[in-house]
Structure formats: C-alpha cells, structure tokens
Design goal:
heterodimer, A: alpha+beta, Rossmann fold, 8-stranded antiparallel beta sheet, 6-stranded mixed beta sheet, 14 helices, 33 strands, B: TIM Barrel, 9-stranded mixed beta sheet, coproporphyrinogen oxidase activity (chain B), oxidoreductase (chain B), metal-binding (chain B)
Chain lengths: 599, 383
C-alpha cells in the first residue's frame, strides 16, 4: 500500500513514430525496472504485430519506482494506450484511469492529427499535460517552432516543455522529475467500498483472463469476491499484482494504484473495458460514469482459400474472440466463396490485425471481401434493418430510404498537397467543415461517409501527400443518401462477394472501374468472359475478357519433360488460390483489388 | 527382349557452340579448344555404363543434339555409334539424326557424318532473311544456308530444317512469303517454332529491360500460327506435332519417342533420360557443365547426377503433356495405366464441347483450334 501522495499515474500521448515506445523504454531503464540484459526495444508491445507495425493494440501498464530529487521514492504507473483511432474507445477508457499525460511531439515533425485526437482525449479526461519535445538532437529539430505550434493548435502552455532525445537518453531524467513535480497525485478513499476501473483484459494461457485495473476507492485483495457491475459476473480474486513489466504478485492494490487481478475468468468477453469492479458484499452502488461496450463499425467476410480449412477457421476465430471482445463474427454462406464468417471490427486497422493474426498465428489463407459499414435500411413497412452485408440488401421496392454512418475527419497536411487532399475528400463525397492553418500546414475537417474511408482512403491520402498527411476521425452519426446496391456479373453469373453499396451518382463510374479492374485481374480463359456491373436488372458497365488464343510451349523434347511437368504442378497449386464461378476462375486477390479506386 | 512402348532412343548431347544465340536457353557453351579424344572416351564409357543399367533394349533411334553437334569430329560421331552398337542391338533402319548449322565449314563434313552412320540431318536455318539472321545471332547468311542445304540433300535422304517465326517486327504477310519459300525448299520435314523469350537468355534480359522491341502481340502470333497450319496443310506437310510438320511417314522418329512417352537414354552433359528399371520409371539427368561431366565420367564411369523415381501421377502428367502435342493424341488407357487415375470426364466433355479436343474411343487429341492453347487445355484436364 502506497500513500496517495507518492503515486503518479500517467500516459504518453504521441503520433506514431514520434517516440512513445522509445521514451517508455528509457523510463523503464532509468528506473532500473528491467535489468539491462533483459532490455529489448518496444518492451511494452508484446505482440509480434505490435512490434512490427510499431503500434500498440492492447493497453499495458508498468510500475516504476523512482527516487526523486526531494529524496522521496515515488511509484509511477505508466499506462501505454493504443494509439490508433480504431481503438479510440479503449484509449478514452485508459485515459480516465490516469491523472496526467506526457505529450510527446517530434521536434522536427511537429503536431500531427493523431497527436491532436489523443491529446483532446487527455484533456477531456482532465489530465495535467506535460509537453515533451523529442528528437531535439536531430539537425532538423525546431523546438521553438514546435513549442509555438503546441500553444497555437492545442492551446496549452509549452514554455516549460521538456526537451529530450529518447534515443540517446538526453533529458529523460528531467521527464521523470516533471512527472513527480508537475502531475497531480491521484485521489481516493481507502475506507470507501471498492471501486476499480476495468481498463483492459487479455487471455493468458496459464492464468486465464488477466484484468488490468485502476483502483479508485477501497482496497482490492486476494480472496475478495468481486462483482463486474455491467455484466453482473461474480469472481473470487486469485491473484493481485503489478507489472514491472513482468507480472509481480503483491498483497493488495489500494486507492490510486494500478495493477492486475486474475479470478478464474474464462473469456475476455466476460470482461468489458470501462466496467466498474466492486466487491460482492458491501460494494459500491455507484458505477464509474461513461461505460459503453465497444461496437464494431466495419464488417467484412473472411473465407478460407481452401474450403477444407473452414473448421480450422472457426476454431481460430473462436480463440481470437476469447481475447478480443470487440471483434464479432457470425457464420456466412456465399454462393461465390462457400462457407466463411461475417466479421465486425472497430476499424480497418483492427480488421487487418485480426486477419494477419488468423493467417500468421493459425496458418489459414484467407479471402477477405470488401469491407462494409452498417447501413440503416428503412423499409416501407416502417421497420429498420441494420445491414452490414450488401448481399442482404432487400428488394428496392421495399426500401424507403438508406442511411449510412458518417465521420468527422481531421487531416493535417503541408500546404503544397492541400489541393490533392481536398480533391480526394470531394471525390469521396466529403463535405468540408473547416479549413485552418497551423503554421505552414493546413488543418482540414471533413464530414465524410465512413464507407468511403474504410477501404483505401488512408492509402490514397498517404499517396497524394507523399506520406505527409496525418489523419484521424470520429463517428458523428447517420445520414440519408442515394445509396444503391451494385452487383457484378462474371460470365452472366452474379458474384455476391463483389456486391457493394454505392452512391447513385457514382455508380456508373464505379462500375466501369470495377469492370476494368476485373478484366485485368481475371486471367484469360479458353472462352470469352463478359463482365458486367448492374443495378437491379440494369447493366451500367461492361467489359469482355477475350478468349485465350495463344498458350503453348513451342519446343518440348526429352529434356523438357521434367520442367514442364513441374510448371504444370505449380499451376495446379496456384489454382487452389482461385475461386471457381461456373466455368470461370477468379483469383482471390480480385475480391479486394477490384474495389480499389486509384488509377 | 521386351518391346518398349513408344520405342527406345539414345540422345547424345554435344555441348559446344561457336557462339551463344540470344534466344537459346539450351545447355550450350563456347570454348576455345576441345579435347576430342577425351570426349570420345567419355561418351563410350557413359554409353557402356548406361547399357549395363538398362540392358535388353533395341535402339530404334539415335539423336545428336546440342550445342552444335555438327562441330563434332565425324570420327567422334562414328565412335559414339560404335559404342551404341556394342551396347545394344540396333533396329533395322534405325534413325540416326544430327543437328547441324548451315555454314560452309560444317557442310563440308556432311558426307563424313553420313559415312559415320548418320542418316538424317536437321538444320538450324532459323530465318530466310539476312537482317533477321543477324538479329537472331546466327553466323550464316541465307545464301550460305541454301548452299549447305543443297549439300545436305545430296548427302542424305532425310533432311529437315528449323525456322523461328513471330520475330521482332515480323508481319503476317512477311511470314506468309517466307513460309512459302521454305516450303519450296523443304524435302519432307520442317520445324516451325514461335520465338519464345526465355529468362536467362540475352533476349530474356533485353525483354526484362523493355528493350526487345516490336515483338508481335499474342493475337498476331495466334494469327501467324493459324496461317502456318493452313499453308503447310495445303502444301501436304500438316503438323504432326505443335511445331513439327512432315509428309506422312517422314516424321522424326526420335522425337516421336519423346512424345509417345517411350524410353530414352541421355548421354553427355545435361542430357535427360526416361528409363524403366525393375518396373519403375526413372527420370535421369547428368552433370550440366561439360568439364564437370567429363570429370564425373572419368571418376565414376557416368555423369548421372539425378535418378528420380517418378510417381504414377508424375508419369501421367508427363505422358499427357507430351502425347497431346501430337496430332495422333493420347490414349486414355495408357494414361490410366501410368497414373492409376482417370481424367475427369466433365473436363473432357467441356473441351470437346468447345471444339478444343476430339475423343474417338480410347484416344483423345487436341484439335487444330486447341493446339495453340494446349497449355490451358492441359491445365483443364490435369487440375
């Protein structure tokens, strides 16, 4: 038990690549939390995907012990939050678990869209914020300019920003001192009923579900019978501990402290991020405010390339679901792709992470269909259908109107690329809400349909801005628009996996591009293949793949038999990656690439 | 002595050329000097060793390929044939072919080759147009080729020559004219190959860098193939194989051994073989580099580096991909006997329906329309 005055809880807010993980590594090193020989980069990112992509998916904490200049030893709890917009809700929960933030800004790059999104969340959570300028040792660093930018854009005092180089360690001790002197100590009452926030949870093969908690009031001890207030679940606490950064059991967690508990919880689904944990008896009856379960917003179909792997896919999805409550799945049958799953994700990154993990950790080759959002389809009979698969679109005569989710997107971009970025947003049916300047960079705010963003918007944005634009978004609600379902017919057969919802005014252009792309993506066959895009029964675009005319080996003698046989065997293996539609074979990458809007 | 289905041939590889042609991906090498005696000795040893492994055969055909086997000394050809005769009995009237470049130097050796036992010459004329011959890296002119061809005709009853078409900048009309000219020259056999850009060749490198200009597109290539079939058929030299034309009875019997999936022994560097031993069909290959092969033969008595037992599925695939090249086609029974499986009837029906395949009882054969897309037909049948 540590007295409240000796505790500081904080998070680090930063744009990707601005040095959050490196700073965390340095803080861990300087407080001797990890022996030098055990030190590795991005210590807090435990998943391969996290390390590879330099992103954080699960929240993580580490408890540091720091003896400050005042001679006192403080407990510093660092919470490492997911940085990506897909996990915005998780971030907001994590933010509420701490009292202060370090705002890390790359002194050569300046403030980015993601920095803004996260710092606003920190401000919303009433954080004290300590600005930290990283990479000041780089020749391109402009600390004075970036300081000004922080004040202009974010509106916080940056005059005493700490200048550091997380890479070389310069200035990092000042960061520790600033945490102690400038961030507030937590508040809480030891004698009050237990009230703890469930910050995150994950599955551990040995311990079952591990729950990351922040105790607000009361004391959490081994042996307590706890209650999850949102789900009503009751569990006896088996272990209580802290992360240093490995798990270290302790006797109890008091007010202001962060740590973990295990309690024979079988599934991550039984724990809801943001839920309030109390004791079964004499517990609090006032849960922490603001709990809401996270909802998937992007959907796509996942089908095994090899239909024999369907059961393996089912097992893999079940296992992943155990560890990720925000990922939903239900079985789906596609005439085109056979048996698979319709899966829901928090965003496109979340989708990619899950797909990567299924392919990598479970070794299943997947066909991913076009991502879709949830449309609200209002029927003439007054009912509303939440549709997340265009294949489920009811007959147009039954439909009164269709609404789609919209987002507010904030984009920061150097002036020279502004024109292209505006064009991109216009092309994606955006409505400009704001355009201001932050130094030499423009900050544009757009109201955009989520459906136009979930696919390749981010890639296109990066490409038109040569990588300089940064982007963040939040959901702002539903709005009606002229949306129709476009079908694609290959050799006269509709391919359900290629159906998309599209704006009426763009259907023809979209259909034309899709037909052209499919013409490139589908190899020539022994017969000619018509490709058509249609709305209802009306064909709006058409291409034809001409029949193959030449594919023969000119010379084939005794010495060529082996090579030609191996070539045929290779083609046979390649054919497994194709999907058969009637007599036409469609390569699996066509299902995603046909929808790309570039070029 | 067991009768071998499809026949038994001996392939002898001579790996040297005076220069490497830019389209050629064969196992050929350019060297300053050749120790002909050492080669004679090595060939003889490998032939004897091979015969010991594969006794009880009667040799139906021998083929000297390369490289440029017309650069061999006639004495070497003679001694190789002697070694073959010593190893196996030769069939009456066995076919003995040799590939030759149509230069005056080589033409001067034709009679000596005939005296050594060669009875068929296959000449690499390649084009009847001097500019194109230069572009193909050939060292002869059209006039020289025609002169060499005349000498060959006088020395041998059976003479064939090769042309390469679908060349850079070649038009349908130009090819029509050149093919007419070739047919006027031809005796009873002609090989007409569409130019194929192989990786690892000079043309392959150029193509990769986008510097091989004016290659006819596939559509024109297909038109040129169709035109070739029509002209040759009209001239009484229909295709009996994808790229080979002959008057009936004048087919290359050695190459028929390959396409009918008979047995063949490979002698010399990088020579492949297909041999049945104790009921198991085996794919053999020898050391590719001439020096490595010579050293191996000196040490072991043979240059074989690969002896792979072919599983039934592989044999079925090889049989089909070879036999369907022939106008006569493949036997479904033989395919089943080799592979232990049957071809999907739905695929056959579909291809017959599309007029790409004919079925007559046990035989399936690719139609004239199917031949230019044979690879796709094979994929449909085998996958």
């Amino acid at each position: 038990m540590t007295e409240l005055a000796k505790i500081r809880n904080f998070s680090i807010v930063a744009h990707i690549d601005h040095g959050k993980s490196t700073l965390a590594d340095r803080l861990i090193q300087l407080t001797s939390t990890v022996a030098d020989r055990d030190m590795k980069e991005q210590l807090l990112d435990s998943m391969d995907i996290e390390r590879e992509r330099g992103i954080t998916i699960k929240a993580n904490t580490v408890r540091l012990e720091y003896t400050a200049k005042d001679g006192e030893t403080y407990i510093l709890n660092l919470i490492d939050t997911p940085g990506h917009v897909d996990f915005a809700y998780e971030v907001s929960r994590s933010m509420r678990a701490v009292e202060g933030s370090l705002l890390v800004v790359d002194a050569s790059q300046g403030v980015e869209a993601q920095t803004l999104a996260n710092v606003y969340q920190a401000m919303e959570a009433d954080h004290e914020i300590v600005p930290v300028l990283n990479k000041v040792d780089l020749p391109a660093a402009e600390p004075a300019r970036v300081r000004e930018q922080i004040e202009d854009v974010i509106g916080i005092d940056a005059s005493d920003a700490v200048e550091i180089s997380a890479k070389t360690g310069i200035g990092v001790p000042d960061v520790l001192e600033a945490i102690v002197t400038r961030l507030p100590a937590p508040k809480g009452e030891r004698d009050a009923p237990l009230k703890a926030m469930l910050v995150d949870s994950w599955y551990d093969a040995y311990l079952g579900v591990v729950v990351l908690v922040r105790v607000i009031d009361g004391v959490l001890k081994k042996g307590d019978k706890i209650k999850m207030m949102a789900t009503g679940g009751l569990y006896p606490v088996e272990r209580v501990g802290v992360f240093r950064p490995g798990m270290q059991p302790i006797n109890e967690l008091g007010p202001g402290e962060m740590g973990f508990l295990t309690a024979s919880i079988k599934q991550v689904r039984d724990t809801r991020v943001g839920d309030t944990i109390t004791t079964e008896k004499k517990g609090t009856d006032k849960p922490l405010p603001g709990f809401k379960p996270s909802q998937p917003v992007v959907f796509c179909g996942l089908f095994p390339v090899d239909s024999a792997e369907f059961e393996d896919l089912r097992d893999a999805i079940e296992k992943l679901s155990l560890n990720d409550a925000s990922f939903s799945s239900e079985m789906e049958t596609s005439a085109a792709l056979g048996f698979g799953f319709r899966c829901g994700f928090l965003g496109l990154l979340h989708l990619e992470v899950i797909r990567d993990r299924l392919e990598r950790e479970y070794g299943i080759d997947l066909i991913t269909t076009a991502p879709s959002v949830i449309y609200h389809v209002y029927l003439r009979d007054g009912t509303m259908l939440e549709m997340h698969n265009p294949a489920d679109m009811p007959d147009v005569v039954k439909v009164d109107r269709v609404e789609e989710p919209r987002i507010k997107a904030t984009i920061l971009v150097p002036d020279e690329f502004l024109g292209d970025v505006l064009k991109l947003c216009q092309d994606r049916r955006g409505m400009q809400l704001d355009l201001t300047y932050v130094g030499t960079r423009a900050m544009v705010v757009y109201d955009l349909p989520l459906s136009e963003v979930v696919f390749d918007f981010y890639d296109r944005l990066k490409s038109v801005s040569k990588g300089y634009a940064s982007f963040d978004y939040e959901m702002i609600g539903y709005a009606e628009d002229q949306l129709v379902k476009m079908q694609v017919l290959v050799n006269e057969e509709p391919v359900d996996a290629l159906s998309i919802m599209v704006h009426r005014s763009r259907a023809e252009a979209r259909g034309r591009v899709m037909c052209e792309k499919l013409k490139e993506l589908i190899p020539q066959h022994l017969f000619k293949i018509p490709i058509q895009a249609a709305i209802g029964g009306r064909v709006i675009a058409r291409e034809t793949i001409s029949a193959l005319r030449k594919d023969v080996t000119a010379k084939c003698y005794g010495g060529d038999a082996t090579r030609k046989r191996k070539l045929l065997d290779k083609q046979k293996a390649g054919k497994k990656k194709m999907r058969q539609f009637g007599r036409v074979e469609i390569p699996q990458e066509a299902f995603i690439n046909a929808l790309k809007m570039d070029g | 002595m067991a009768e071998v289905e499809g026949g038994f041939g001996v392939y002898v590889h001579w790996p040297y050329c005076l220069a490497k042609c830019p389209y050629c991906d064969f196992n050929s090498h350019v060297t300053q000097s050749v120790d002909h005696a050492a080669w004679r000795d090595a060939y003889a040893r490998e032939i004897a060793w091979t015969a010991a492994q594969t006794p009880d055969r009667r040799v139906d055909t021998v083929f000297f390929g390369g490289g440029t086997p017309s650069l061999m000394e006639p004495e070497t050809v003679h001694s190789v044939l002697e070694a073959i005769r010593a190893a196996w009995p030769m069939a009456d009237g066995a076919e003995v072919s040799l590939e030759a470049n149509p230069t005056s130097v080589e033409a001067g050796k034709f009679r000596a080759f005939r005296d050594a036992g060669v009875n068929r010459i296959s000449m690499g004329v390649q084009a009847l147009n001097d500019a194109d011959l230069r572009r193909l890296g050939r060292m002869h002119s059209v006039a020289e080729a025609q002169a060499a061809f005349d000498i060959a005709r006088n020395a041998f009853d059976r003479v064939s020559f090769d042309l390469i078409y679908v060349r850079q900048g070649q038009t349908l009309d130009a090819w029509r004219e050149e093919l007419q000219q070739a047919l006027d020259m031809a005796v009873d056999h002609l090989s007409l190959y569409q130019l194929t850009i192989e990786p690892g060749t000079r043309f392959g490198d150029l193509a990769e860098r986008g510097k091989l200009r004016d290659l006819p597109p596939d559509d024109r290539a297909a038109d040129m193939y169709d035109l070739t079939q029509q002209i040759c058929t009209d001239a009484g030299m229909p295709a009996y194989e994808v790229s080979n034309h002959a008057r009936p009875g004048a087919e290359s019997r050695h190459n028929l051994v390959y396409w009918r999936y008979g047995e063949y022994a490979g002698i010399g560097p990088g020579a492949h073989g297909r041999i049945t031993r104790n009921g198991q069909r085996i794919a053999t290959d020898t050391a590719k580099a001439p020096q490595a092969w010579l050293e191996r033969v000196a040490k072991l008595g043979h240059g074989v580096t690969v002896e792979d037992a072919l599983d039934p599925a592989d044999q079925g695939t090889e049989y089909l991909l070879m036999a369907l090249r022939l106008r006569e086609g493949a036997s479904l029974r033989r395919y089943s006997a080799l592979s232990g499986a049957t071809l999907p009837t739905a695929a056959i029906a579909e291809l017959v329906d599309a007029r790409l395949l004919d079925q007559t009882g046990d035989k399936i054969a690719v139609t004239e329309a199917g031949r230019p897309v044979l690879n796709a037909v094979l994929r449909r049948l085998l996958t």
